[in-house]
Amino acid sequence: MNAPYNPGLLEHLQLRYAQGPVKMLIGGDWVEAASGETFETLNPSTGKLLANVAAAGDADIDRAVAAARAAFEGPWSKVKPDERTRLLLKLADLIEANAEELALLETLDVGRPIQFSRMIDVQGAIGQLRYNAGWASKIAGETAEISAPGEWFSYVLREPVGVCAQIVPWNFPMVMAVGKLAPALAAGCTVVLKPAEQTPLSTLRLGELILEAGFPAGVVNIVSGLGRTAGAALASHPGINKISFTGSTVTGKAIIEASKSNFARVQLELGGKSPTYIFADADLSKAIPAAAMGIFFNAGQVCAAGSRLFVHEKVADQVLEGVANMARGMKVGQTLDASTMIGPLVSATQLERVTGYIQSGRDEGASVLVGGEAISGEGYEGGYFVQPTVLLETKPDMRVRKEEIFGPVLCAMRFGDDDDVDALAGRGNETEFGLSASIYTSNITTAHKLARRLKAGTIRINGSGGVDPALPLGGFKASGWGRENGKAGIEAYTELKAVSVAL
Ligand code: ADP
């Protein structure tokens, strides 16, 4: 994963994007926007232009939804489950065959260090496809005994929900696009997918591989465009049956509003402010790096980032010094350098937002243990870099403690023997979010009691790691609605139909 990047491949991509705007995929064709409009996607490491990309408007969204509908009612409805499995596996193989190019695209567009693009984006996407491919032939209804008078045969069908709108954010574009596409396609749905305007390139390249794999035209449509225009038109389109959205809580609310017009089934994966607990009996050799990577990985631009640390006072000095040392030691820099651990934030807007939060923490009385500044100067020209940061002495009502910063900023708090599991869970649950939590302790009772009391969709005990396609992913409270991944994730792309026959 630490191999140097391939300069020939970089040149190939640069040449390709110099040839003109990247088109979008509608009904099996690569097309410009009907309006001819485009938008720019930039390299966050340098602030320079990577490519111009077609900017979908209402007319393009109409066409894409119509293409998805035609495929859903037509050719795709006749494709048997085992053939859907085969197509999904074929796509996984094609991603594997083009792994280095896709990793490079993600690195250029998102600003993720190349080693992580290879591991998370490419391997994650392949994993999602291979996991979900198997589900295509395992989706099943059931029979039921009903209590009405007479003799009845009742059964429940599980049908594909229909045309699905999928709206993806900029932090993990390809793996999230695939994580949404794979279960939808396995279940027999068709899709109109919109990548984020900051990071459309890997998803559009994925569209080429989808056609190469042999998916019929219109089964997957990829519309690039701005959130407030293309995204809003897609979310409120009368022709969609379901919307799956990952992104900010504010936009999540807009999606809910939009669904009032079309009654689309809504699945939302939104923000987080996830706690990490380190108890005095924890294995600190695991807990310290996990706490640091939990917030600094991907420059903190992770919905499940462990942005609040609760550490027992007996080990607090050691843990905080360990996390601060990691913050000082991790290489922040250019993403094509295989030794870089932390890249830039995705955009100038995001840099402003994160540094604004750090300043608001200072203004409200927090102190800075490490970091706290944007990075500029030689090697960082034009990029959106910020130091990994740890804030101390925060209070629950401060913005840095309760709002999602989406940057490498950790709020660290101490607790003592007086804080029992209920009190600790209460502190973990004190924000509006409930996406995930991590617990480090060698006491299994403490670990399981706390896991039960935390209002969070994902809990890790004594270990860290990313998303696994087999485990349901989603949040409590303002962190979202419904679940992706696992059996629940597949079933969320189906509708139930009860059929009763009087015998
Ligand atoms: P951010 O504010 O960090 O860009 P968003 O949640 O707004 O995060 O973006 C996530 C995705 O939602 C992107 O693909 C974006 O284009 C899209 N989006 C933004 N606004 C809307 C909207 N009003 N309706 C539908 N999609 C939107």
Describe this structure in words.
The protein has 503 residues and is of the alpha/beta class. The protein has two domains: 7-270 and 480-499, Aldehyde Dehydrogenase, Chain A, domain 1; 275-468, 3-Layer(aba) Sandwich (Aldehyde Dehydrogenase, Chain A, domain 2). It is 40% helix and 20% strand. It is built from 16 helices and 22 strands. The chain has helices at residues 7-18, 58-73, 81-97, 99-110, 114-135, 173-186, 201-213, 227-235, 249-262, 284-296, 313-329, 348-363, 399-402, 421-428, 444-453, 486-491, and strands at 24-26, 29-31, 38-43, 48-54, 142-144, 152-160, 163-167, 190-194, 220-222, 242-246, 265-269, 275-278, 308-312, 367-370, 374-375, 385-386, 389-392, 409-415, 436-440, 458-461, 480-481, 494-502. Helix 9 (249-262) links the parallel strand 10 and strand 11. It is globular. The termini are far apart. The structure holds adenosine-5'-diphosphate. Adenosine-5'-diphosphate binds at residues 167-169, 194, 196-197, 227-228, 231-232, 235, 247-248, 251, 254. Residues 167-169, 194, 196-197, 227-228, 231-232, 235, 247-248, 251, 254 line the site of adenosine-5'-diphosphate.
List the helices and strands and how they pair.
Layout: H1 7-18, E1 24-26, E2 29-31, E3 38-43, E4 48-54, H2 58-73, H3 81-97, H4 99-110, H5 114-135, E5 142-144, E6 152-160, E7 163-167, H6 173-186, E8 190-194, H7 201-213, E9 220-222, H8 227-235, E10 242-246, H9 249-262, E11 265-269, E12 275-278, H10 284-296, E13 308-312, H11 313-329, H12 348-363, E14 367-370, E15 374-375, E16 385-386, E17 389-392, H13 399-402, E18 409-415, H14 421-428, E19 436-440, H15 444-453, E20 458-461, E21 480-481, H16 486-491, E22 494-502
Parallel strand pairs: 7-8, 7-10, 8-9, 10-11, 12-13, 12-19, 13-18, 17-18, 19-20
Antiparallel strand pairs: 1-2, 3-4, 5-6, 6-22, 11-21, 14-17, 15-16
Helix pairs in contact: 2-8, 3-5, 3-7, 4-5, 4-7, 5-6, 10-11, 14-15
